Amino acid sequence: MTQEHEGIPAEGATAGTTDDAAAADPAEKTAETAANTGTEPAQDGAAVTDDQVTDYLRRHPDFLALRPELFGVMTPPARWTGESVVDMQRFMVETLRGELNGLRDTAHDVIETSRSNMAFQSRTHDAVLALLAAGDIQGFVETVTDELPVLLDVDMAVIGFEPSESLELACSDIAVLDDGEVDRLVGVGRDVALIRDMIDGAAVFAGGAGLVRSAAFARLRPGGAAPTGLLALGLRHEGAFHPGQGTELLRFLARVVERCLRRLMDNHT
After folding, report:
1. I need a surface site. Which of 3, 32, 68, 190 has the fewest CB within 10 A?
2. What CATH architecture does domain 135-268 belong to?
3. What is the pLDDT along the chain (269 residues), one digit of tens a residue?
4. Is 148 exposed, middle or buried (0-12, 13-18, 19+ CB in 10 A)?
């Protein structure tokens, strides 16, 4: 009869099992423990336990505050109550609400910008039609100074050129700029400049310089006998023009002005 006492296995009952367990690969045991507990083995082969994670978070209470992106992948706990309890669900909801508000504001800005661009595009088309209708240089310059402000919704529109006898004889209303003034205002090698805060625009806007607080300049190159010139738009509100705005329509308008002037100058001569 086999006798079995407390704590002593019966003969042959578990000896083989004990030897097998002792011979088990430690790495396999670590992997098995990690699979059972849902933890990842550390680099040294030891499994990271729940207690270790808990201890780490206690020693670093600002861990989640510094990494709010983790809330997007975490499973929130059930609601807790108590004065010393932080409501994680509320924090996660507020974080997502902030992101949603940010997306909504961005979408609103994009829509408003698109509407503004479409409106300015339509006004630019009307301005081009008015310029094309001018029959001579005098009428063309009057269209720029008198009609473009209304059509483009600006306060002033001026066309000017560096010294040229041919243009001065053709129309006395063309603003005469100093040599190098276009490069100074627009920039060497540049075609367009948007000025947020126009400090001194007397050289371009003359008597209206005190009104203009923001300006847009486009370089003109009509060719032929005409020197470098400038199409200038002015607004009374500081920041109305700024470097972050698109300039495609302003460049297009300047090219139209160049071609109209070239045609009218050839007819004048």
Report:
1. 3
2. 2-Layer Sandwich (3.30)
3. 444 434 433 444 444 444 444 444 444 444 444 444 444 445 555 688 988 988 998 898 888 778 877 766 776 655 555 555 556 667 667 777 778 888 888 888 778 767 777 777 889 999 999 999 998 888 999 999 999 999 999 999 999 988 876 665 567 678 888 889 999 999 999 999 999 998 888 888 988 888 999 999 999 998 776 788 999 999 999 999 998 888 999 999 999 999 998 888 877 66
4. buried
